[in-house]
């Protein structure tokens, strides 16, 4: 290829690199690398499911789990998380349509491997893959006063609220 | 004057004396409703008390869930500072001076009183307790 003599090659090359790089990042997020679980985007769900703990990503559980959980908010892990029926129905819709075996499927492959939707597990922290990923976390770390519970994802994953779990 | 309007006037007067402001908003309306309910439950009721509200907020009851014996377990010892739930979520300050947008949605206020009083006291709070607590926070 013959370039004009004063073609600004360097900025052009740098631009190409930048484009390629962001394509990689974008591609990873799109393909659903095991680190990215899109966070809750619906303000109602964020408000009602994100006050006591992180609003957990819907793609981390199968639809059957969300249906089971939303059917009994009165006894929600010992807490009363009950809502007006119309509000609960809207939230259930959102969680179910973005669940790990529905709209959120491409993000959840690994986390939900070996999970039978028929069992409708209620805890992300009891999924086999989750347990395996965390088996190296020592006991004292779970009991640390900044952690206290496995459900406190943000204590260790500072960007969990943005959907990133790569430590 | 029929009894209904009388209680309305009474409630409005109470709300004004509590808020110290001339403009009634959802916060004042809710306090007025709590005052009316408190009066109905106890004819000797003579207005809300920030001091009682402070006790409710800070006392360790331990009658609900073991990890949350007091309101301060989640809301922190300083009403003007943030608190944290057992699952690690930050809760913005409850003091009205720091969080001026609080307590304007009566349904939200009721929802959390119900949940949180159960967590701490093992029962729901009554109207007087709710009014006392809100009065305390309004003065913080």
Detailed description of the structure:
The complex is a heterodimer of chains A (167) and B (140). Chain A is mostly helical and 167 residues long. Chain A has one domain. Chain A is built from 7 helices and no strands. Chain A has helices at 9-31, 43-49, 63-70, 85-97, 105-108, 128-133, 139-143. In chain A, α3 runs antiparallel to α4. The longest helix of chain A is centred in the first third of the chain and has 23 residues, at 9-31. Chain A is globular, with a radius of gyration of 20 Å. The model of chain A is unreliable at 6-33 (pLDDT under 50). The N and C termini of chain B lie far apart (37 Å). The longest helix of chain B has 17 residues, at 3-19. Chain B has a two-stranded antiparallel ribbon. Residues 12-22 of chain B have low confidence and may be disordered. In chain B, α1 (3-19) packs across α2 and α3 crosses α6. Chain B is mostly helical and 140 residues long. Chain B has a single domain (22-138), classed as Cytochrome Bc1 Complex, Chain D, domain 2. Chain A binds chain B through residues 50-54, 78-81, 146-149, 151-152, 154-155, and chain B through 65, 85-89, 91, 114-115, 118-119.
């Amino acid at each position: 290829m013959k370039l004009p003599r004063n073609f600004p090659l360097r900025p052009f090359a740098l631009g190409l690199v930048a484009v390629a790089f962001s394509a990689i990042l974008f591609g990873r997020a799109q393909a659903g690398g095991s680190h990215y679980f899109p966070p809750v985007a619906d303000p109602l769900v964020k408000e009602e499911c994100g006050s006591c703990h992180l609003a957990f990503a819907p793609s981390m559980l199968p639809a059957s789990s969300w249906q089971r959980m939303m059917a009994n908010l009165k006894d929600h892990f010992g807490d009363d998380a009950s809502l007006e029926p119309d509000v609960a129905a809207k939230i259930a819709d959102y969680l179910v349509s973005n669940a790990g075996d529905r709209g959120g499927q491409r993000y959840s492959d690994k986390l939900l491997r070996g999970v039978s939707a028929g069992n409708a597990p209620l805890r992300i922290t009891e999924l086999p893959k989750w347990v395996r990923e965390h088996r190296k976390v020592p006991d004292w770390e779970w009991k640390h006063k900044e952690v206290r519970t496995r459900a406190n994802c943000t204590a260790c994953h500072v960007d969990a609220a943005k959907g990133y779990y790569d430590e | 004057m029929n009894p209904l309007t009388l209680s309305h006037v009474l409630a409005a007067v109470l709300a004004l004396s509590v808020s110290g402001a001339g403009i009634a908003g959802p916060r004042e309306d809710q306090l007025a409703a709590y005052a009316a309910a408190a009066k109905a439950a106890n004819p000797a009721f003579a207005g809300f008390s920030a001091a009682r509200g402070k006790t409710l907020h800070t006392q360790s009851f331990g009658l609900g869930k073991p990890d949350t014996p007091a309101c301060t377990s989640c809301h922190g010892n300083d009403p003007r500072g943030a608190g944290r739930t057992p699952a690690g979520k930050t809760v913005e300050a409850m003091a009205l001076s720091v969080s001026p947008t609080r307590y304007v949605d009566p349904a939200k206020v009721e929802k959390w009183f119900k949940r949180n009083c159960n967590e701490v006291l093992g029962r729901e709070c009554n109207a007087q307790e709710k009014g006392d607590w809100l009065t305390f926070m309004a003065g913080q």
